[in-house]
Amino acid sequence: MSNRVRKPMTPVIAAGGFSSGDYKLSWNETTYYTIYSGGEGGSSAKAKSLRLKRQATGADKYLAYGLSLDKSMGQDCIVVCKMINNIGTVEHYYATGKVTPSLLDPNEPTVGITDATVSYVNGNIQCKFTREKYIDSVPRYCDSSKNKYYLQIAEGSIYGGIIQKHGSDVVVSDSVIDFSVNTTFSGSVRDAAKSKAHACLMVFAWMFCVSTGIILARYYKYILPSIKIQKMMFWFQAHRAIMIFVPICSLAAFLVILADVGWKWVETTSKVSFAHSIFGMVLIGLSLIQVFFGFLRPDKDAPRRPLFNVLHKFTGMSCLTLAVVTCYLGVFIERMNLGRIGWGIMIGWTMWVLILPLLIELVQVLCAQTKSDSYQITQDKLPPIPDEGNKKLIERIKTALLFLHLLISFGHVIALIVVIGVAEPGKFVSD
Ligand code: HEM
Ligand code: HEM
Question: Is residue 178 domain-shared with residue 204, that is, in the same domain?
């Protein structure tokens, strides 16, 4: 214990509370101290099953209350209520970022905390403590007499006396807490369901549909000649349908993630999410423009048609490139918890979409060169056109490659969707 002069305990000037699905916390505010009392109490099926699991394994655990200037982890003072072998202790930590917090004052683990008790009540961890509002001699101490903080509540396991990473179900207050008013505040967990839905829709649209739509337009204009709708070739019908579906699907996925982040731009605290959101917005914009101009395309023989083709091709390929970058950034977003398996699948898919056009080009060149004596040389000395037999052979190989593409691309996309669906903290990424 330090030899600081203890500030006097004065009468209570305000009482408030915080409540969310799984936690309750109430406090009494005095001039120099805030007296907290709260704990778990979730009645949801998930909370109950987690509690039963914990009781069955007898794992040590902690419940932590963070005071933070923002809604994410970093530069926060955290009061950690620990239960180790059914013995409770309370310590004061500081988190520099999204890393295991360290003691606020290594010489005094309980700095600023007095009258602490931690216990289990019906299997729920409960914690009471008094926190000094400011201590000038401790540099990083969060001064709740001057600043207003968001309240963050997390829980997790303790191994070897060390607190482990909490789950993704951290509760954050909806607004900053004003301890000096008699009000009950509320908060919520940012659940992963919406991010997962966003990611799955985008992966399907951009990795499966767009790659297929583009190769159909580039290499498969010959397929299914008998299927013509309104005299339009199959490849065109398919390309148009797929490419209209993609921006619609992207807009749906965009609205889902917007709802998740509270209809605001993502916070700039995570560089990866921010970069992802910028690339993503440009991409959605470009895909809408692409569809718009797709419908305004000049007639096949119109003088402006070659210009349309060049511009459309350039914007289309830019979309694909941006989509690859955006998806890579997406799988790197920490809260997706994908780790190596996420970018591993992405690399597999990227390799394939690079290899496929190379293979097709190679087939076209090699097969056209065989039996070169049978080429029909055109009058104006243009490159030789393969004869009917070679053309059929090239088409057969290309069709086989299309099936292979559908199989490989779909396989990667399904694998990524499953991994996104089942990912949770600690599953694919070690702490
Ligand atoms: C997100 C939307 C779209 C993207 C990303 C996209 C992408 C592409 C790409 C990259 C190509 C060139 C393939 C190649 O030869 O290398 C292409 C060709 C083509 N696309 Fe699209 N497209 C989109 C939407 C549309 C729509 C909505 C239409 C029609 C309404 C359309 C009509 C065409 C046509 C006619 C071609 C053939 C051009 C040619 O023969 O060179 N596209 N598209
Ligand atoms: C090419 C496909 C994608 C596009 C166009 C796209 C677009 C976007 C956009 C525009 C935002 C920002 C929303 C906002 O600022 O409010 C966003 C956020 C997000 N995206 Fe994507 N996305 C794509 C793929 C993915 C993938 C593959 C993943 C994960 C595997 C992913 C995960 C996320 C997450 C977690 C956020 C929220 C970031 C945060 O709040 O920190 N996205 N996306």
Answer: no
